[in-house]
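Posting this for the archive.
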Amino acid sequence: MKVFQGTIIDQVREVLDFIQRHISVGARITGRPEREEVWEYPKESLREAIVNAVCHRDYEDPGNVQVRIFDDRLEVWSPGVLPPGVTIESLQREHESKPRNGLIADCFYLIKYIEQWGTGTNRILSLCREAGLRTPQFAQKSGSFVITFWRTKSRRKTAGTIIRLNQTQTLILKYIRGHRGASTSELEKHLSISGRAVRKNLEGMRHLLKWTGRSANDPTGKYVLLKGS
């Protein structure tokens, strides 16, 4: 279990970083200069769910906002039941916004984490639908409001090519992108893993990287991003 501290805004950002490290993240190659990250669950829908949990939770309840990651789903738990006049059914259509904690909601609105009042749950549904995922489930359990995102093995085809990366490959890609290239030894040191492990992960990234050395053992060679990656 990981506990997050700091300001509420910092906690939301750190939770999203934590989720990214514990789910599959891929890269969509579209031909544009920058690659596009593809999260197993749409990143914007997760952010909506977490911000919703923070803004609408019952702060008199001693419980905490929780994110639970399973093999087949991801759950966001928010202490407190829905306010009077709001139902599970109404959350799935256009509805009036009734934030339990208005000042907190205003903060997230000002930093554009909330785009428009009363649209958060609808955005969650539409973003998952566009990603080809099963419709998220809204429910009230044990005095909490719970949003469940379902994982699926098959994703709807989208423009470009999607390449799935594991956690280590994602870190490799970020390092190479940030340093405009890296050698195997640099990656070993940065990731604290063996050269064999680095090479094994690089083998699965041939569609994203190229080797600049004149030979496989060229000490001046580096792995760099292919154009469009």
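The two ends are 34 Å apart (CA to CA). The first strand starts at residue 25 and ends at 29.
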